[in-house]
Amino acid sequence: MFKVFKTPEFKKAIAFFVEGIKENKKSFYISNTSALLWCFLVIVQPYLIKRIIDDGIVADNQRAIIVFISFMVIAGYIRAVSIGTRRYFSMDVSFNVEAGIRNRIFTHMQKLAFNYHDQVPTGELMARASSDASQVRLAFAIAPLASANIFLLFILSGTLISISLPLGGIVILSIPAVLLLASNFSSKALGVSLKVKEAEANMTTEVEEQLGGIRVVKAFGNEDYASNRVENAVQNIYDTSLGYLKLRTRFVPLFELIPMVITLAVLLLGGFLTINEYLSLGEFIAFTQYVFLLIWPLRITAWFLSEIPASVAAGNRILELLDETPAITDDESPNELPKDGDGSLKFSNVNFKYGSEKIFNDLTFEIDGKKTVAIVGSTGSGKSTLAYLLPRLYEIESGSIEIDGVNIKNLRLSDLRSNVSLAFEESFLFSNTARENISLGLEDASKEEIKDAAHIARAHDFISQLPESYETKVGERGYGLSGGQRQRIALARAILRKPRVLILDDALSAVDASTEEEIRSELNQVMSNMTTLIITNRVPTIELCDEVVFLENGKVKAQGKHQNLMDTVDSYKSLFLENQTSEIQ
Q1: Among 180, 270, 296, 585, which one is least packed by beta carbons within 10 Å?
Q2: Mind listing the pLDDT tens digit for each residue in 10-39?
Q3: ∠ at Cα 222 (219, 224), nearest 5°?
């Protein structure tokens, strides 16, 4: 019996639930105490009815009737209060647990490296923080009620035996049958519940992806294809849920049938015993009341056991995510960057790959502090990857990267990332105000500092013309703005941090030529105080730089002035000839 309790999934999940209880001990104890008080009052009520009938009505004792009815009224009032208290505090526990789970999931997801997020769809993670967390919450919500009813089950069993051994025996013998059915259902439902949860996660992933790319879907007239993909995902949920439903239809009717048969047997045998004066009328009525009360905890216990598989499946899916060890963490004894450092960089024998694809093979080069350097190379040469490695968004396999002589692995991630600022080609903006997007991570930045950064990025003029200026919400992902405007806000965000190392990953690709020239002019003043890496193959931008690092075949092919490389490195010259040819075509 109770095979589900012996499974590894249940043993793993129970530790998770115990942790939730410990974090909400006070409310959990109050809810359980209220539930047990309710149990006691449930048991008392039929006893009071018996006393009213036997000691009051049958004995013609009006005082006894009034006394015991008064007790029933008081007991009923306390019972109602205990129900309300139990519900309030059990829901308080469940909602706190759900909120805690969601906060833990999001906090943990932020600690996981880019390579994890590259492999796991966003919709899958969203499902664990939404539907799975809600399923775990349900287990905490019904736990006090279920535990009280299980306790009530045993108390009522003893009470029934004390009133009548023959009648009590009939009822007691039926309880193991109900619990055995519930146990069998739970053990079979666990695997099905996992499939349902996975199907729901796949559907969330599909919807998130199709809505995220809605502009592409509509632009290419791909609505039917997108609808079919979502429809297939929904159909999968339907199919797996139907399998779970079929399983329930085999067991749930039995949960209803057995109590009904018990009730009929009690009425028949109890009526015979009462007529033949083996039982008093009050005892018979009290016994039937207890039987009716027993049916409720039987149903609750069966329901609780039937919900366990879904909650265990959801808990395991959440724990699977929370058990994922962050690949990039702080050093146990972190160092600090020298205060007088100028942002010099040193890459020594750096090796890195995406999966099985080798990107860098013993990459080695140095950059002096406060220099502006163009990172140049053909598509797939690793230019953007280099930008991701500096702030440790990805972890290198071997070798070392140093800033001002300190290995970046020996720095706190917060310190490293506050000193390395990035502006990407694809500028992601949050659905906040323009001011909040610029001051991201620097919420205490003054209005003047924000405006100064916007001036340098040539974003101030168009922001000022927005309906509420800097307090205008830019829409989801910044789609209320043009591509060039989004890039300029992202550039202002990077500049505001005043980092030691500024990385511009083709960050002006969507800006028109005249505006780019203005921005480059303004950036000259800013870049003189920091080391700047500009990832680009655009000649006007490269000519702005002090030197060029040319990447080829996972290594630095050449490093020096643009014109020198054009004169001495054939593959470098060929790269720009190819670019010019493609632009002409």
Answers
A1: 585
A2: 777 777 788 888 888 888 888 888 888 887
A3: 145
Q: How many Å apart are CA 4 and CA 574, to the nearest integer?
A: 67
pLDDT of the residue at 64: 84
Residues 6+ apart with CB under 8 A from 583: none
Q: Which domain holds residue 512?
A: 345-584
Q: What is the pLDDT of residues 347-369, one digit of tens each?
A: 999 999 887 888 998 999 999 98
- CA atoms of 507 and 509, how far apart (whole Å): 6
Only one residue has tokens 């009052």, namely 41
Does a structural domain hold residue 108? yes
Q: Reading across the β-sheet that carries 398-403, which strands appear in turn?
A: 357-367, 345-354, 398-403, 406-407
What number of CA atoms fall less than 13 Å from residue 75's CA on the CB side?
A: 18
Q: Please give the pLDDT value at position 240.
A: 85
Number of domains observed in the structure of the chain: 2
- 509 & 553 share domain: yes
Q: Tokens 């499974």 — which residue? A: 7
335 found inside a domain: no
Residues 6 or more apart from 340 whose CB is under 8 A from it?
A: none
pTM score, two decimals?
0.71
Q: What is the β-pairing status of strands 501-505 and 420-423?
A: parallel
Q: How many residues does the chain have?
A: 585
Sign of CA dihedral 433, 437, 443, 449: negative
Same structural domain, 312 and 373: no
* Structural element, H or E, at residue 534: strand 531-535
Which amino acid is it at 277? E
Q: Could you identify the residue written with the tokens 């793993």?
A: 12
Same domain flag for 318 and 349: no
Residue (of 101, 135, 97) closest to 322 by Cα position: 101
Q: Which of 374, 375, 368, 351 is nearest to 404 (CA)?
A: 368
DSSP 56: I
Confidence of residue 582 (pLDDT cuts 50, 70, 90): very low
Could you tell me the CATH number of the domain that includes residue 142? Answer: 1.20.1560.10
